Amino acid sequence: MFGRLTIEALPLYSAIAMGGALIVVFGTLAVMAAITWMRAWGYLWREWFTSVDHKRIGAMYVILALIMLVRGFIDAIMMRTQQAIAVNSDGYLPPDHFDQIFSSHGTIMIFFMAMPFLTGLINLVMPQQIGARDVAFPYINAMSLWLTASGAALVMVSLVIGKFSTAGWTAYPPYSGIDYSPYVGVDYWVWAVLLSGIGSTLSGINFLVTIIRKRAPGMKLMFMPLFTWTTLCTSVLMAFAFPAVTVVGVLLELDRVAGMHFFTSGDGGNMMNFANLLWIWGHPEVYILILPAFGIYSHTVSTFSGRKLFGYTSLVWATCAIAILSFTVWLHHFFTMGSSANVNSAFGIATMIIAVPTGVKVYDWLFTLYRGRIRFTVPMLYTIAFIVTFVIGGVTGVLLAFPPADYLMHNSTFLVAHFHNMLIPGALFGYFAGLNYWFPKMFGFRLDERWGKRSFWCWVVGFYLAFMPLYMLGFMGMPRRMEHYDVAAWQPYLVVAFLGAVLILVGLTFTIVQIVVSVRRRAELRDPTGDPWNGRTLEWATASPPAPYNFAVIPTVTGRDAFWTMKADGTAWRRPARYEDILIPRNSAFGPLIGAIAFVLGFAAVWHMWWLVALSAVLAAIVVIIRSSNDDTDRLLPAAEVERIETAWLAEVAAAPRPVDEPARGVPSAALPGAAT
Amino acid sequence: MRISPPIRRCLAVAGAGALALGLAGCATSYAPILDPQGPVALGQRDIMFRAFGIMMIVVLPVFVLAAIFVWRYRASNAKARFEPEWESNGIDALTWIVPALIWATLAYHVWVYTHAFDPYKPLDPYVKPLEVQAVAQDWKWLFIYPEEGIASVNEIAFPAGRPVTFRITSDTVMNSFFIPALGSQIYAMAGMETRLNLLADRPGAFRGRNTQYSGDGFPDQHFAALSMTAEDFDAWVAKAKASGEGLDAAAYEALAKPSSKHPVTYYATVEPGLFGHIIARYDGAMAMTAMDHGGAAAE
Amino acid sequence: MSDAALPAGLEAEATAERIEDKAFGFWIYLMTDGVIFALLFATYVVMTVGTAGGPTGADLFNLTHTFGETMLLLVSSATFGMASVAAREGDRRAVLLWLVVTAALGVGFVIMEGLEFSGMIAQGAGPDRSGFLSAFFTLVGTHGAHVSVGILCILVMLAQIAARGLTPPVASRLFRLGLFWHFLDIVWIGIFSIVYLPGVL
User: In Å, what is the CA distance from C24 to each residue of A110, A212, C19?
Assistant: First the structure.
């Protein structure tokens, strides 16, 4: 009945694990109690959980990402604490627990923090940037969100029931095979990755179709905003790279459950095939994570320099080049597997080509600053910190692409420092910049700048403190994933890294404070015009938050920076001759239902409750069939209702003062909100 | 920009930390990668330094320009020129050409040095290297000296100045064999053999280890790598021979069971062909080589 | 909010656009599914040497049987084509008839594959015997699972066509299902020429 699930699965083996479990359980209960107390279940269900509006789905993705960021960061600081004290001692974490922590840290940060963060921002912004009313497939969009959430829920549940994988976020066999990891940890990893991976593949297809088919009239490909371009490339990678992780997860699970021999030692298995399949997904994945951030930086640097983006065409081609090249370099993740010098150098050289378009991008952003008027807002601070810090990671990346250097640095903390250098200042700072930049679009008010800046400084300084010592430790021969060590010379560096983690903790706390403070000051921080930063692209042409249909009248685009042109021409915020009826998709319980079923299916599979797996698979099929047989999915927003919404907003625009952060000069007065009626 | 008091405190802590780091670095740092003890590690470190230097051509201007542009074009600076439409095809072209040239230079180096430091390549074709067979186990290393007929656990010795050729496999999950002071790591995989050629310039005691996470005992899975004079090496072999223990199939099975912090052990005799048997036990029919490196199949 | 009466023109326009979006999206989905099959093919090719002393393709494959499967699938593709032609002509009865024939051929294929698999497992050549057989069962089985899903979809289509007739959304679903069905045919040709033929020759 319960498969291999017994009372033993509760984390009674360690006080710390028990504490983690209790935090998860009581945290969840507290949130649910709060919602009940506020009688918000009905509102949340009707307006949010069942919503198929891309903006709401985007916001839910971002909230999921922020929650998982906290969880992933707790893992990180626990590891840093352990390594800071565990010299010639066992520290406070037993190996089995430490190993779960580094595995869940990586898995969470990649699959359940970065992926939802970028998918959320894309959802929020991209359809508005191309002048669309929604993504192409709103219901699939909801399904993607809830599949991702169900994967994240599986990882969280593993804290309470059973254990998580100890095989690292890459789960290399044969260690992750049934002989060496017989318990449920790796199964949790596989099912969490599979569920969210399917969600990501579907998101990729969805965004791709949206960008190709849903652009406003006149928006040629080379008129598209940079974030839309990077989304396009990321979507291609999501659609075509994520199937590889699906395959690798399924094959690993077949090895574990059905006794197959894909990756076993002996019996014809081949563990090297796992490395190849995993990184055929894994290398494009790092560009999936970073390309949207590149898009965000392109907008923030241009908006807050008050000038057009330097080298738009170069940036577009560089983005495409990176996307294509990302499929050709996977072998550099295992130069030390014994490939011939020809193969290793070919992949090393291919890897380094990526540095060329990336270098182009860095210089294009730099020259966007040139002869601009730089406003040091929070998004801009993240952008500047990114430009400077990212090149350090680029340099160490090119060093690691040298096979002979990789023979020295592989598996060391130097590698850990390198990819955190790409993923924190590269990707995460970009998401933070995007969050601060587009937050008003999400909720209608800006984020508090002071707390944002405090948080920013802690993140940046904390990053340097936490990871620069790791570069040095790599030179000192320290491997990654060390639960304890006996080289006293490493400890000072690890203590500094720990202090860096503490500073990042402060930064993370300030980020949360920033959100709380902003919610409390929301009246003051309100964005009445929809264009709080004097923006250039179409997402600023809508209200904040936008009406369900985004644009009452789909704009016609004549060039790049479409909204900037509209403001210069005086056609922004203009009332159309007449409003029309608009169809919008009706809310549906389909998404959360599929997510819930997927969660049950994954949980049952982890614990070998095969009857429940079969039952939930049948249920899922029935739900999908019912949903796909439904041809009546739209509801009508009558022209009169559209007119009412639009008139109220335009009146606010007319009455609005100039944006707070607007410099007094350099912008044609006709372009300012309030001057356009 | 005005910096608020809590931030100032954070910065002060950070500065103190960085200072402490620098002092600690001067006082106690032992960085085998930066202080190579053999030609392989030396060459690999130097190519890293050279690549680093070449990249500074494009990297340093980023730091300089970023500082200058951010300062000069701050919104509060009324004197700075403001040209929101400014573009430059020349600079645009340069941003492609310069990195591309650097890429070409680096690519040349990659090709040459990857071949020069191919771990499979003998270091000196005129000198017969010392052969050591290394077997990764949970969580220790077994070293077999086929010519000397001895074996050791968690300690290897070799004469300084003489090339050592390692034949490496695993009797457990994937491991990675690495002596940082001598350079070049390579994976150890069950049912397969990988190779590595190293050389120590001078006598010395180094540390080697598995760098690929392999389970609970992973942190302690290190060994002593002793480079010694020819006489000392002979004495070391003699010491192993005098240990009286033999490594036959039964002794091997006992040794292969998982254990942490296994003490250094010597074996006076080794069952012939043991290394081949360890590989073959994973696969009768599938003579597999590590990736495409031909000729390293299981025997 | 009452939405009983959506304006017909607006609704038709939205439906038409949605159908084109879905056709394009479905092509991309097929490409992603193609990536899955490509990786399974690659894995199979890598693992053909991993027989671990067990049976090889030459010992196990029966080309006559495989030829029978191939015929069933190819003919089913043709009958699906007939259904598509009938759909274009608006002949609801013919569509239903051809779809039933297609589904029956598909079921025949799945049964033949099941017989092949159970026969192999009975002689000790199951997917847990060797890496080669794991790859074989997974590749061919994944295709078979796709065919089974396709049959299920045909049944759903039958119900929709019977209940609603060939409305634009229903007809568009039939079109996409046709793409899926022909795609599986192409994958099968790959399986035939990469798995069975070299295995026997």
Answer: 29, 9, 9
Judge: C53–B288 Cβ closer than 8 Å, yes or no. Answer: no
| Domain assignment of residue B124, yes or no | no
Quick one: B87 and B164 in the same domain?
Answer: no
Q: Quick one: pLDDT at residue B284?
A: 47
Using 50, 70 and 90 to split pLDDT, how confident is the model at A13? Answer: confident
- Closest residue in A to C29 (Cα–Cα): A205
The overall average pLDDT reported for chain A is 94
Q: Is the pLDDT of residue B285 over 60?
A: no
- Is A366 within 8 Å of B69 when comparing Cβ atoms? yes
Q: Is A485 domain-assigned?
A: yes
For residues B254 and B112, state if they share a domain: no
pLDDT, position A130: 97
Q: Are A458 and B290 a contacting pair at CB < 8 A?
A: no
User: Mapping DSSP to helix (H, G, I), strand (E, B) and coil, where does residue A130 land?
Assistant: coil
Check C130 against A268: CB less than 8 A apart: yes
- What part of B 89-128 touches A (C-beta under 8 Å)? 91-92, 94-96, 98-100, 103, 106-107, 109-111, 113-121
Residue A407 with chain B: CB contacts under 8 Å: 44, 117, 119, 183-186
How sure is the predictor about C8, in pLDDT bands with cuts at 50, 70 and 90?
A: confident
DSSP letter at B137 equals E
Are residues B57 and B199 part of one domain?
A: no
Pick the closest to residue A93 from A105, A104, A103, A81 (CA basis): A81
Please give the average per-residue pLDDT across B90-110, as a whole number: 96
Residue B26 inside a domain? The answer is no
Q: Which of C47, B115, B167, C142 is nearest to A272 (CA)?
A: C47
CATH number for the domain harbouring residue C128: 1.20.120.80
The rounded percent of chain A whose pLDDT value lies above 90 is 92
Radius of gyration of chain C (CA): 20
Dig out the tokens for A557 from the structure: 């685009």
Contact at CB, C52 and B288, closer than 8 angstroms: no
Alpha-carbon distance B33 to B31, whole Å? 5
- Same domain assignment for residues B151 and B236: yes
Domain CATH number, residue B274: 2.60.40.420
What part of A 553-582 touches C (C-beta under 8 Å)? 581
C51 touches chain B (CB under 8 A): yes
Q: Which residue has the tokens 């890496």?
A: C131
Is the separation of the CB atoms in A187 and A269 below 8 Å? no
Which pair of tokens denotes residue B73?
Answer: 């074009």
- Domain annotation covers residue C4: no
At residue C9 the predicted structure's pLDDT band, cuts being 50, 70 and 90, is confident
Q: Are residues B105 and B211 in the same domain?
A: no
Tell me, what's the pLDDT at C7? 79
**pLDDT tens digit string along C71-120?**
999 999 999 999 999 999 999 999 999 999 999 999 999 999 999 999 99
By the CB < 8 Å criterion, does A639 face chain C? no
**Is B173–A339 a contact, with Cβ atoms under 8 angstroms apart?**
no
Tell me which residue of C28, C80, C174 sits closest to A629, measured CA to CA. C174
Range of the domain at C34: 21-47+62-200
The verdict on residue B229 lying in a domain is: yes
Cβ atoms of A556 and A217 closer than 8 Å = yes
Per the domain annotation, does A27 fall within a domain? no
Same domain for B270 and B146: yes
- Render pLDDT for A602-615 as a digit per residue (tens, 0 to 9): 999 999 999 999 99
Phi-psi region of A266 (alpha: psi -120 to 50; beta: other; left: phi over 0): left
* Residue C37, min C-alpha distance to chain A (Å): 9
For residue A466, being part of any structural domain is answered with yes
Would residue C109 count as lying in a domain? yes
For B269, the domain range is 130-293
Per CB-CB distance under 8 Å, the chain B contacts of A321 are none
pLDDT in tens, A557-570: 999 999 999 999 98
Task: Name the residue range of residue A413's domain.
Answer: 394-526
Which pLDDT band holds residue A484 (cuts at 50, 70, 90)? very high
Nearest chain B residue to A174 by CA distance is B173
Q: How many CB pairs under 8 A join A and C?
A: 130
Q: Is residue A436 part of a domain?
A: yes
The structural domain count of chain B equals 2
Domain count, chain A: 1
Mean pLDDT, rounded, for A236-240: 97
Do C53 and B284 lie within an 8 Å CB cutoff? yes
Cβ pairs A/B, distance under 8 A: 342
More confident residue, A662 or A470: A470
Whole-angstrom Cα distance, residue A162 to residue A145? 25
